[in-house]
């Protein structure tokens, strides 16, 4: 079950479960519920998988071995296993939250808040003219909250992933102004592969993954930084 796998990897990595759960923005009461067999939704599952840099199916290898058993001749890949897990547990599919691109008006608001041109966030570099911020249907939501919502969603496509990566690189730039570089971020046990790719400017950004919200929580708490500073470089 999920609880057993979580405890196992925490012991292997010398990580205490309760502080870890809190660092990911979750209630410590979840640990007891998972021990009793409560279902884990996919957003939480992704947070743990990303934190430990393991495939999602790691947490189900004892939860339902039969469900993730690869058929003869099939490709023994993580995606095959994840597919079989989700097929056996459709409740996880229902809880997945994939992000979609903000409206053009909201993109303008986000770009203005970050002090970048809106074209910087467009994968093809183009943007319609005469877009008005007052046309935003989410005008009552501050741009910072729009961005944190974007970073908390699963990528739904190349354009959305590109947006997450570009926002992540802005965050890296602002962190550098506080002398927070790759080595310090690695000390937080963020995904090394993710950090390597984000810091490698020669990589095609379609092959890079941006920070997720749990990453931002860890960075904010570890270095006592506001989300506003991380996004804008202003306290």
In short:
With 235 residues, the protein is mainly alpha-helical. Helices cover 52% and strands 0% of the residues.
Architecture overview:
This protein is mainly alpha-helical. Helix 7 packs across helix 8 (143-151). The protein has 13 helices and no strands. The protein is globular. It folds into two domains: 2-95, 434 Repressor (Amino-terminal Domain) (Orthogonal Bundle), CATH 1.10.260; 104-232, no CATH class.
Features:
single chain, 235 residues, mainly alpha, 434 Repressor (Amino-terminal Domain), 13 helices, 52% helix, 0% strand, globular
The total of beta strands comes to: 0
Shape, per Cα inertia axes: globular
Largest sheet geometry? none
What would you call the structural class? Answer: mainly alpha
Radius of gyration based on Cα positions: 19 Å
* Unreliable residue stretches: 62-78
Question: Helical segment tally?
Answer: 13
User: Could you give the distance between the termini?
Assistant: 44 Å
């Amino acid at each position: 079950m999920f609880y057993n796998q979580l405890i196992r990897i925490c012991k292997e990595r010398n990580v205490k479960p309760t502080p870890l759960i809190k660092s990911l923005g979750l209630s410590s009461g979840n640990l007891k519920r998972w021990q009793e067999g409560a279902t884990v939704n996919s957003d939480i599952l992704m947070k743990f998988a990303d934190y430990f840099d393991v495939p999602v199916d790691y947490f189900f290898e004892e939860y339902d071995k039969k469900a993730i058993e690869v058929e003869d001749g099939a490709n023994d890949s993580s995606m095959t296993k994840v597919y079989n897990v989700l097929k056996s547990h459709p409740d996880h599919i229902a809880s997945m939250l994939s992000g979609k691109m903000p409206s053009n008006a909201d993109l303008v608001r986000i770009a203005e808040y970050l002090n970048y041109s809106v074209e910087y966030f467009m994968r093809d570099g183009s943007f319609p003219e005469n877009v008005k911020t007052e046309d935003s249907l989410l005008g009552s939501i501050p741009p910072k909250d729009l961005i944190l919502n974007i970073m908390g969603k699963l990528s739904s496509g190349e354009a959305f992933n590109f947006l997450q990566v570009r926002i992540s690189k802005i965050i890296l730039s602002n962190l550098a102004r506080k002398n927070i570089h790759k080595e310090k971020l690695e000390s937080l046990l963020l995904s090394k592969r993710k950090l390597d790719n984000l810091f490698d400017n020669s990589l095609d950004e379609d092959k890079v993954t941006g920070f997720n919200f749990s990453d931002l929580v860890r960075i904010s708490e570890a270095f006592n930084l506001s989300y506003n500073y991380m996004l804008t470089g202003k306290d």
